[in-house]
C-alpha cells in the first residue's frame, strides 16, 4: 500500500509538516510505503489556463508537479497538508490543486478504495477552515479519492508549537494508521 503526503507549507520544521510527518509515521507503522513531497521546494509553474488539457487529458507543463501527479496515480491514500493563509490553503497547495485542472474534464467517479486526508493548521483560534476544506473536498473528488477526514488545528502560530500539543500528534498518527488499516481490511 502506498500513502503519499504532500506539504503545502514553506516551513520544513513548521506545524503543518510536523503533523504530516506524524500521519506518515502512523501509516508506516502499519507497513505502508510512504512518499512525501514538499511543494515549496519543487520547481513548478502555475496553471496557464491554456485549455490544452481539455483535449489532451493531461497538462502539457512538465515539471515537479507533473511528476507528483504521476505518483498519485499509484497511491492508495493521499494526505494533503496546508497551513491556512487568508482562511484558505497556501499558495503552494493552491498552485498544485490548480494544476489538476486536466482531471476535471475526465469527470472521475470516486474510488472508495482510495482515501484522502486533509491536515490544516492555523495561527488564530478563531480561524474558519471552511474555504480550505471546500477546495480540498472538491479536489479529492476530482482526483477520484474519497475524503475520509480533516484534521484541523487552530491556534498554533509559532513554528513547532504543535509539539506542545501531544493530542494533535497522537490524533495525526492514529489517522495515518487508520488510512492503512481501513484499506487492508
From TrEMBL:
InterPro entries: Flavoprotein-like_sf, FMN_Rdtase-like_dom, ISF_SsuE-like. It comes from the Archaea. Residues 1-147 form the NADPH-dependent FMN reductase-like domain. Its cofactor is FMN; [4Fe-4S] cluster. GO terms for molecular function: oxidoreductase activity. SUPFAM superfamilies: Flavoproteins. Keywords: Flavoprotein, FMN. Transmembrane segments: none annotated. Belongs to the SsuE family. Isf subfamily. This is NADPH-dependent FMN reductase. It comes from Methanomassiliicoccus intestinalis (strain Issoire-Mx1).
Amino acid at each position: 500500500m502506498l500513502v503519499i503526503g504532500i506539504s503545502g507549507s514553506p516551513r520544513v520544521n513548521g506545524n503543518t509538516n510536523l503533523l504530516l510527518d506524524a500521519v506518515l509515521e502512523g501509516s508506516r507503522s502499519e507497513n505502508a510505503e510512504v512518499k512525501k513531497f514538499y511543494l515549496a521546494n519543487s520547481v513548478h509553474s502555475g496553471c496557464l489556463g491554456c485549455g490544452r488539457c481539455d483535449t489532451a487529458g493531461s497538462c502539457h507543463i512538465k515539471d515537479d508537479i507533473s511528476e507528483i501527479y504521476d505518483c498519485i496515480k499509484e497511491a492508495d491514500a493521499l494526505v494533503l497538508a496546508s497551513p491556512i493563509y487568508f482562511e484558505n490553503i497556501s499558495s503552494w497547495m493552491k498552485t498544485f490543486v490548480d494544476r489538476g485542472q486536466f482531471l476535471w474534464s475526465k469527470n472521475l467517479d470516486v474510488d472508495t478504495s482510495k482515501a484522502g486526508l486533509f491536515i490544516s493548521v492555523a495561527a488564530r483560534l478563531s480561524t474558519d477552515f471552511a474555504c480550505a476544506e471546500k477546495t480540498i473536498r472538491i479536489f479529492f473528488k476530482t482526483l477520484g479519492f474519497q475524503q475520509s477526514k480533516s484534521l484541523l488545528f487552530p491556534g498554533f502560530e509559532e513554528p513547532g508549537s504543535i509539539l506542545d500539543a501531544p493530542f494533535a500528534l497522537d490524533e495525526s498518527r492514529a489517522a495515518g494508521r487508520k488510512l492503512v488499516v481501513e484499506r487492508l481490511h
